[in-house]
Structure formats: structure tokens, C-alpha cells
From TrEMBL:
PANTHER family: SENSOR HISTIDINE KINASE YPDA. InterPro entries: Bact_2-comp_sensor_kinase, HATPase_C_sf, Sig_transdc_His_kin_internal. Keywords: Membrane, Transmembrane, Transmembrane helix. Residues 147-225 form the Signal transduction histidine kinase internal region domain. It holds the Pfam family His_kinase. This is Signal transduction histidine kinase internal region domain-containing protein.
Length: 335
């Protein structure tokens, strides 16, 4: 509109100069006339371009450019006919409107040329490059998510089969405990298995999984340990990788509680650091875990953290022999 208005002003100034009737009223009348016509054609060209163009990734050929010009003229000419009063009795008003429209249309054909040039020489290659980058990024993301789902799928049978083995042992020893364990396991699987398919779960959902898991394990180990979960209510809505804390707890039982002779304690605590990261600490009182104890579950967790957070996540194991083992997980908070 700004360009067309500028052309309208220049055309009006030129007409006033030729007519030698230089006054504001004549200039204003001429400017308004050209302003209407040129903007009618400008918007008609824009509309037909959007309607007939097949997108920035398809080159505009000559036939389509001609179609844009013809269609925009067909739209504009009737509008020009009705917005002016054609008072010349020597020529039919329709002929006057068509002649006037043709001259105005020719003065705006530069717009068609510019649109075709920009699309064919500038927009199309850039669009193709952006499109290719998007496709490549989509494939990488799809592959990454597939790897993540495969890693998470490996966790489910691992825990499930371990629990079934415990259940098998309890059947002959204590039928009532075996029944209770089976009920707990059924409820655990019913409520948590669907969660494993997601990239993130709420920290509160992870907390519920921990409670169910530890309750099952207490039955298995005949109350050989106590546990305490300290996850504030205000943090329960935050997202975290599914079964990340549970994997650390599982390792604490496998490498700590299971191998100690006395009664142990497991503590899980979470807090925010600088309002950007979740810091989770899993502590077991056995203090038997060492760096050489890295098993499939822990390596799986490290892979999932790497896929999900890149280098923004940190997992460290701090062992104080015969005293305590701390597993410290720190992950960023994603919206």
C-alpha cells in the first residue's frame, strides 16, 4: 500500500504539472483517484498470487504468472468501474473504465514481476533448505524417541521378572504374603505400566511408583529395611524421566540392602536448585555400592538421561564404605 500510494502521488503530481492547474484541490482529487485504482490492483494481485501460487517450494512458470495478471485484472476492472463517475459522453463508460484500468494495471505489473522473482530466485531455494533441515531434524528426533522408548521398555520386564521370582519363593514359605505381594504387583502394573511409554512423568507419579515398589520389596525382604520419601508437594507437578528415581532405589536395594546383614534405611529426597534443576538424592545406609557395581539398570538410566537432557543432566554415586551410599541425580526443569 505504501508503494502504491507513492506511485499515486507521483502520478497525480505529473498530471497536475501537465494540466498547469496547480492547486491543492486538483492534486487531492487526482491523488485519491490514483490511490484507489492502484491499491485495488495491488490487493487484487496479492489475492490472486496467494490463490494461484502453489507454495514457496514450487517455481512460478510463465503460464501461471499470466493467469495471475489476467485474474487480477478481471477482479479489479469492475471495481474501478463502480468507484468512479464516468461522465464523458463520447465514449461508453465501460470502455472508459477498461482503458483506465488497463493503463493502471500496466503501471502495477512490476508487482507481478517482483513476486515471481522473489519466489523463484530467493524464496524457493531458502524454503527448500529450511524444509530439508526440518526433515533431517524430525528424523533425528524420531530416532531419538524410538531409542528412548526401547530403553524404557527394557526396564519393565527387568523389574517384573525380579518380582515374579520373589513371588515364586514366597508361595511355599508364606502363602498370605505371596497373596499380598501378588495383589500389590497387580496394582503396581495396572497403574504404572502406561506411564513408562511417556517421555516424562510428573514427580508425584514417580513418587507413587516408588511407594508401590518399596512396599513390594519390603514384603520380599521381610521388612529388612525402612524407607522415607521426602518429595515436597510443590514439586510433584514437575516433569522427570520415568523410573529414574526408581532405578536408583533398585540399585540401592540390590547392591546395599540385599547384601547387608542388619536392617537398612533408604531415603529419597528432592529439592529445587536455583529454580532451574531438580536435585534428587537416594541414600541407603549399607554403604556397599561402588563404581564397579554399575549394572544394566544404571547404564540404561544414564543412556535415557543422555537422550533426554543431553549434557544438562548429572548423575553421581558417592560411597562411604560401611556407612552410606548417596546417588545424586540433577536434571533441568523443562516446561
Amino acid at each position: 500500500m505504501l508503494i502504491n500510494s507513492t506511485f499515486a502521488l507521483l502520478r497525480a503530481l505529473y498530471d497536475i504539472y501537465l494540466s498547469e492547474q496547480i492547486n491543492f484541490a486538483s492534486l487531492y482529487t487526482a491523488f485519491i483517484g490514483y490511490f484507489k485504482v492502484m491499491n485495488v490492483f495491488g490487493f487484487a494481485l496479492a489475492f490472486t498470487y496467494l490463490f494461484l501460487s502453489r507454495g514457496p517450494d514450487v517455481k512460478l512458470d510463465l503460464s501461471r504468472i499470466l493467469m495471475i495478471g489476467i485474474m487480477s485484472f478481471a477482479i479489479s476492472a469492475p471495481i474501478v468501474f463502480f468507484i468512479f463517475n464516468w461522465s464523458d459522453n463520447q465514449t461508453h463508460p465501460i470502455i472508459q473504465a477498461l482503458v483506465y484500468s488497463s493503463s493502471a494495471f500496466l503501471s502495477t505489473t512490476w508487482a507481478v514481476i517482483v513476486m515471481a522473482y522473489v519466489q523463484n530466485r530467493e524464496s524457493q531455494p531458502k524454503f527448500q533448505l529450511i524444509k530439508q533441515k526440518y526433515i533431517e531434524q524430525f528424523k533425528v528426533r524420531e530416532q531419538t524417541e524410538l531409542e528412548l522408548h526401547l530403553l524404557q521398555a527394557q526396564i519393565e520386564p527387568h523389574f517384573f521378572f525380579n518380582t515374579l521370582a520373589s513371588l515364586h519363593n514366597l508361595i511355599d514359605i508364606d502363602a498370605e504374603k505371596a497373596k499380598y505381594l501378588l495383589e500389590e504387583l497387580t496394582e503396581y502394573l495396572r497403574s504404572t505400566v502406561p506411564v513408562f511409554r511417556y517421555k516424562f512423568v510428573k514427580l508425584g507419579e514417580e513418587k507413587e511408583m516408588l511407594i508401590r515398589y518399596l512396599s513390594i520389596q519390603k514384603v520380599r525382604f521381610s521388612n529388612k529395611f525402612d524407607f522415607d520419601i521426602q518429595i515436597p508437594k510443590e514439586l510433584e507437578h514437575l516433569p522427570i524421566v520415568p523410573m529414574s528415581l526408581l532405578t536408583l532405589v533398585e540399585n540401592a536395594i540390590k547392591h546395599g540392602i540385599e547384601k547387608t546383614n542388619g536392617k537398612g534405611n533408604i531415603t529419597i529426597s528432592c529439592a529445587m536448585t536455583n529454580k532451574k534443576n531438580i536435585k534428587a538424592i537416594v541414600s541407603d545406609s549399607a554403604g556397599l555400592y561402588t563404581a564397579s557395581n554399575n549394572g544394566t539398570g544404571l547404564e540404561n538410566l544414564k543412556s535415557r538421561l543422555k537422550i533426554t537432557y543431553g549434557d544438562d543432566a548429572a548423575l553421581t554415586i558417592k560411597a562411604l564404605p560401611e556407612k552410606e551410599t548417596l546417588a545424586v541425580l540433577e536434571v533441568p526443569v523443562y516446561d
